[in-house]
Amino acid sequence: MATTHNLGFPRIGAKRELKFALEAYWKGESTRDDLVRVGADLRARHWRDQAGLDLAPVGDFAFYDQVLDMSFTLGNLPERVRDFHGDALDNYFRVARGRSAKGTEDHAACCGGVAAGEMTKWFDTNYHYIVPEFDAGTEFKLDATRLLAQLAEAKDQGVKAKPVIIGPVTYLALGKAKDHSDKLALLPRLLPVYADLLAALADQGVKWVQIDEPILVTELDSTWRDAFVQAYEALNTGAVKLLLATYFGQLKENLDLAATLRVQGIHLDAINARDEVDALVRALPADRVVSLGVVNGRNIWKTDLEAVLAWLEPLAQTLGDRLWIAPSCSLLHVPVDLGGERKLDGEVKSWLAFAVQKLEEIRVLATALSQGRAAVAADLAANAQAIAARRASPRVNNPAVKAAVARIDAALGRRKSPFGERTGKQAALLNLPLFPTTTIGSFPQTKEIRLARSQFKAGAIDAAAYTQAMRNEIARSVREQEALGLDVLVHGEAERNDMVEYFGEQLDGYVFSQGGWVQSYGSRCVKPPILFGDISRPKAMTVDWISYAASLTKKPMKGMLTGPVTILNWSFVRDDQPRATSCLQLALAIRGEVLDLEKAGIRVIQIDEAALREGLPLRRSQWREYLDWAVESFRITANGVADETQIHTHMCYSEFNDIIASIADMDADVITIETSRSAMELLDAFDDFNYPNQIGPGVYDIHSPNIPTEDHIVTLMKKAAARIPADRLWVNPDCGLKTRQWNEVIPALTSMVSAAKTLRATVS
Ligand code: GLN
Ligand code: ZN
């Protein structure tokens, strides 16, 4: 009979209780006890939600981040917080976000805040973890307090507990050696601490421990592969049984390695690596547990239960008790409970499953395996009906969109003339000075904007009043930009609360949940829009706003759009067609908007691709394929315009070295990128690769309230001019200004505009 389990449950709470409890605690508005109580209540509730499983995860709850929890469990605190007063939780928040709660930081002059740990993306998800820090001298020391306390709680509540920890190899691989020393040299110091941890868990009667090693789905060199062998030899102490969990991808060349590790079971992501199941079963010794992730832990769709049963039933015959079933990965990456959705379109809702519903699917599958399908006939029938309805729905399938995608040919993504010819025509039309100045799109989201938006949502003001309020803000932005003397203006994006949601709401094929929150980092959550059907654009989405802005000035007005790859990467996407196809549909829709803007007389159009880089697959060998369709989607979106129309794109990062050729292939006339934080060092990519078009390397960090000086900007731009010909450089901030105040934006842009004037006079 198949054992059912779960790899991790979303900890933020169906109503984001953890977020609000954390933020109140940090602001000094609630006590430590209040926070601790909310944590315990959430754990108890989530274990009740998982009561139908044979094994529930323990230790997946974290106040901020599970990787940071692991660092504390291993006694790996950055040196800079070690001597601080306060207890472990204060220090934990200091590493997480630079400071603990208000009260704990105020009373001592010593801790005005410390540098927060670096944050980076957890594999290819939108979850961010706190990067473990190492150096050649790092020592580890077990602190199992947190895990043992959660285990004791679980036992009290009668939970069939399976502690979850991050494995030693993945832990090292995800961290950063600050002194560039060899991280693997720490493995011999780390393993005894893991062995102690397993022994401590065994003392509490734990039978199985889930040890996560997702790094196994990436390309590993031989030293890291050897580290796996060494680690699991050392941890094979017999104290507990280890379920080695892999997820997010295929094992590929690591499959044989994984199969021979000295663990008692392996979890495989049978959504992404279904085709490896047979090989894994064959490669594993006959006494090992095979845990299959058969329900997708990364999307929000119902599982086709009959299809899963059709391939799982014979496997269950072969494997018997060795078969475990679970979601493909931790459910951290999906919202908690569909039950709370009151306004969601009923038809689409019937196709969805959030965390609670996904566990119910596991239960139905397990029952069907152990007692036969008849035992869950009603569940299976309801599921089959939902799957069939979705497949056949005219709202999902739009033949006109499918036909348009089928008609795409290479010419659609090609500008009429090469950059060398376009650039002269654009210069003649736009008549810009050397070192033209511009901004990335958004201006401050003021109190007035937020008020008008919430009043409109609540029905307190009508559409006309709302439009007027937004127009007032747009007019203000234009006035300010003219006063500053910027060269290419923007409308300021007052009407957008989010650069993806704004477009999703106006496109056919999208729905929005009310409570579909997913943790992004710490207390921060996102609510990804749900792309459910073929995408089309019923009508123009931005033309009125931008035309209005353009009517207020003689300067060029830049139209502002979000690109198809970014819209795709920040949405929950369909599982019934390749991502590439959804992306091409988005590309055609946004292309229509680009052409409408051009028709309305807008001759500079920016298409943001902030999230292009984060869509890169985990394995480098798959980058090419992704970049091909991502770049092609951008080109289709952008490149239907006349030579005179100038296309800009913006990217929120500057690690370009490995994808610079693809960025160049996009053939945007101008790209604006982030570089200010590294004093233009990130322009390294442009040393080896002669980027052919124009570039605006961000000259100041919009995330900081600090006002850049003119001198600083001039110095940075001179560094840029040493690498890129001056006549191809733009001067602009790092990113949009919506999170800043006007009283910060005006002095910062004043410096920027004077810097451009100085540059014009001194660099040629
Ligand atoms: N145009 C957007 C803005 O200025 C770009 C935001 C982004 O790159 N994240 O807000
Ligand atoms: Zn940006």
TrEMBL record:
Domain Cobalamin-independent methionine synthase MetE C-terminal/archaeal: 435-757
Catalytic function, reaction form: 5-methyltetrahydropteroyltri-L-glutamate + L-homocysteine = tetrahydropteroyltri-L-glutamate + L-methionine
Designated name of the protein: 5-methyltetrahydropteroyltriglutamate--homocysteine methyltransferase
Active-site positions on this chain: 703 (proton donor)
Pfam families in the cross-refs: Meth_synt_1 (PF08267), Meth_synt_2 (PF01717)
BP-aspect Gene Ontology terms: L-methionine biosynthetic process; methylation
Function (record text): Catalyzes the transfer of a methyl group from 5-methyltetrahydrofolate to homocysteine resulting in methionine formation.
Binding site for Zn(2+): 650, 652, 674, 735
Domain of life, per lineage: Bacteria
Keyword flag Transport: no
